[in-house]
Amino acid sequence: MLKLDILVLSVHPDDAELGCAGTILKHIALGKKVGIVDLTRGELVTRGSAEIRDKEAAASAQILGLAARENLGLPDGFFQNDKEHQLKVIAAIRKYQPQIIITNAYHDRHPDHGRASNLVETSTFLSGLRKIETSVNGELQQPWRPDLLLHFIQDEYIKPDILIDVTDHWDKKIESIHAFGSQFFNPNWENEPQTYISSPEFIQVIEARAREFGKVIQVKYAEGFTSRKILGVDNLFNLL
Ligand SMILES: [Zn+2]
Q1: Cα(110) to centroid of ligand 1, in Å?
Q2: 42 Cα: distance to centroid of ligand 1 (angstroms)
């Protein structure tokens, strides 16, 4: 079994890169094992296809140095926070037994983001209940409750509860985003339909948000997260 320190559970391949690639890279550099489970293949996408996005997600996983990346294949746009989908997410959490889970924003322009956030939040709690049975490859899984669930911040501004300095990992984060050549600004795709996220300005806004968050903690780039749980630290100097 592969046990992860951090599991990112987000709905569309590329959400994790946009929301927290810097934090992923930072913790891998610290020796932590990090993986991504994408909930859907993003098959309702305007540009490209699920097959193209599978390849892009695999390429990005290489760039990030992930210990694992898989796709649950839930229906893009139509998955619900119900028993059927919760059991699949619970099985993924129990499979990797992460200490920390990172998921989508509480609410966002794309309704899948808030719905995925709720689905992961519910499943994270239910995963700890031993009377809910799940299995992987025919083997019964053990209950598992992570210590911490964080939500990254996406299109809509949400005031973060915590900021992580990702300055040293910024260039690699941008590289991982550009692995999704069908989604973001790409001069080779100029004859394809343009979308909300395919303009050069979209990446500039990602950078502007990280610069704004970075300024708050006197670094160049930071990623922001929220937590429903009140966060604690073992000494005040770790808060600097
Ligand atoms: Zn998304």
Answers
A1: 7
A2: 8
- Using alpha carbons, list the distances in angstroms from residue 189 to 174, 204, 211: 18, 19, 28
* Dihedral of alpha carbons 200, 206, 211, 212, sign: positive
Near ion ligand 1, which residues have CB within 5 Å?
Answer: 12, 15
In the chain, alpha helices (H) = 15-29, 50-64, 83-96, 111-126, 170-178, 200-216
Q: Is residue 123 within 8 Å of residue 101, measured between CB atoms?
A: no
pLDDT digits (tens, 9 = 90+) for 109-141: 999 999 999 999 999 999 999 999 999 989 999
Per the CB < 8 A criterion, the answer to whether 176 and 21 are in contact is yes
The pLDDT, as a whole number, for residue 183 is 79
pLDDT (tens digit per residue) in 9-52? 999 999 999 999 999 999 999 999 999 999 999 989 887 888 99
The answer to whether 227 and 148 have CB atoms below 8 angstroms apart is: yes
- Residue 80 and residue 4: Cα distance in Å, rounded? 26
Question: Rounded mean pLDDT of the chain?
Answer: 94
Dist. CA 239 → ligand 1 center (Å): 30
Give the span between the Cα atoms of 82 and 93, in whole angstroms: 16
